[in-house]
């Protein structure tokens, strides 16, 4: 694996729309792929971790949730980098994780979400 990989939940409409935003608006050298179609074992990512949060994976580094978004933004165009650095701040990270979990729990209610987003992975 030479290229970074940004994993998201391809069974969730909200997550898929968010990934489409990344692909259209944020230039990244990462492959943006649903975890369901990725070789998680080769990436060193447990299925439970992929189900729980988005993942940034590259040799020597793995980040999840808002920390994964921070890496993505830091590696994007210059105008995204400040947001990435703010998210990377320890204080900001402590604040963004609860917000990330709140969004993840309620993603079926958000724009672009579907009822399937609210179901546990095993029931989709």
Explain what the structure shows.
- It holds the Pfam family DCC1-like.
- By secondary structure, this protein is an alpha+beta fold.
- It has one domain.
- The chain contains six helices and four strands, in the order E-H-E-H-H-E-E-H-H-H.
- Helix 4 packs antiparallel against helix 5.
Outline the low-pLDDT stretches. none
Structural class: alpha+beta
Question: Mean pLDDT, nearest integer?
Answer: 90
* Main sheet record: 4 strands, mixed
Choose one word for the global shape: globular
Strand order of the largest sheet: 2-1-3-4
Radius of gyration: 14 Å
| Count of individual helical segments | 6
Order of helices and strands: EHEHHEEHHH
Task: State the end-to-end distance.
Answer: 29 Å
DSSP strand content: 5-15%
Give a count of the beta strands, DSSP E runs of length 2 or more: 4
Count of the separate structural domains:
1
How much helicity do the residues have?
40-55%
InterPro entries: DCC1-like
GO molecular function: protein-disulfide reductase activity
Pfam families: DCC1-like
Protein name: DUF393 domain-containing protein
Could you give a quick summary of the protein structure above?
The protein is of the alpha+beta class and 124 residues long.
């Amino acid at each position: 694996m030479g290229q970074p990989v940004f994993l998201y939940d391809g069974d969730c409409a909200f997550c898929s729309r968010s990934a489409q935003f990344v692909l259209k608006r944020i230039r990244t050298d990462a492959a943006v792929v649903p975890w369901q179609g990725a070789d998680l074992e080769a990436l060193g990512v447990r299925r439970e971790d992929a189900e729980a949060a988005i993942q940034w994976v590259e040799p020597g580094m793995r980040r999840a949730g808002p920390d994964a978004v921070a890496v993505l933004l830091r590696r994007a165009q210059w105008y995204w980098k400040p947001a990435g650095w703010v998210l990377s701040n320890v204080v900001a990270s402590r604040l963004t994780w609860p917000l990330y979990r709140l969004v993840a729990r309620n993603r079926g209610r958000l724009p672009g979400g579907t009822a399937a987003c609210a179901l546990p992975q095993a029931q989709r």
